[in-house]
Amino acid sequence: MDVLSRAAAGERLSASEILELYQLPLPEVAAVAHELRLRRSNPQVVTYLIDRNINYTNICNVACNFCAFYRTKRQGDAYVLSFEEIGHKIEELMQIGGRRILMQGGVNPDLPFEWYLELLRYLKKHYPEVRIDAFSPEEILGLEKITGRDCHELLVALKEAGLDGLPGAGGEILVDEVRAKAAPARIKSNDWFRILDTAQRLGLYTIATMVIGFGETYEQRVAHLLQIREQQDKALRTYGQGFAAFAMWTLQTEHTRLKGKAPGATAHEYLQQLAIARIALDNIPNLQASWPSMGFKVAQAALYYGANDFGSTMLEENVVSAAGGHNRTHATVRQIVRHIADAGFIPAERDPYYNIKQYPDVQAILNEKPPVALPLA
To answer: Which residues hold [4Fe-4S] cluster (predicted)?
Structure first.
């Protein structure tokens, strides 16, 4: 039985078999990935989430070569948002029906741990119905260094203060050789998994991520996927929950120090890698399409290459767009619903755990006049 037949039969592929997929015609790989997607999630439905990204500070001492968002504290446009400013952004989200924020920032050594606890308490007091997924593994590692406390102790305190989940940002390619070339001070692979494993043990929400285009080899991409799959096996077996989803996008280098030094990745490579991820990650049912990095049309195509989710409205995306994404910092519900429906699927609003909240009235949404864009706070 050849590798695609084994994959289509639902068998788990080895590293060498996954590597073989890169040499096969993409339409054949995509067909198997799409078939698996139809089996592992509702075949008629594509989900989306109404949420908002909030970057509470852009001050960071990690200084990744592929980041155009970070600032040193001495730069004129460096900032730390006040609790009230963050609250105002949440109120804007609530006005359009959103009840979840993804809050991340740089590794800011001038913010004490108590600041994070006070922020969470403030948000939970004033917006108790809003879910807070915040602080990437890189930020938790930074807090370990600042406080001298381990991630378990830190995450317990953050959870008690109101933290609901930990984003999987900072994954990129989880091979330290690749990471050292792109960002020498970046969190190492073992620390990334150690912190997310602790979050999963504590019952915090997590997702797995991947960014391609650093010049990594196919073997290194496969190594990344297999580590994600192994962690998911462990988490499901030991904690009863693991990564809620897998999200991947392409490296954006236009405004970064990696411009001209890293190849990035084409739409073809993105769709190929997404299809292979669907096949390899047999224990993660939900895969997101990435409209911020690829644009809406490629994101629509991704729904036939293994993705069953169109991502979220975001309302305000600063990190990918700063590096030179598709110049999109947010999407309206109308845009997302239209692109899902035009691709031939039923749009469904979900929560972060991929439970369906409601099926919107597609025709009513498509027939209404687009809302006047409001300035973001």
So the answer is: 60, 64, 67
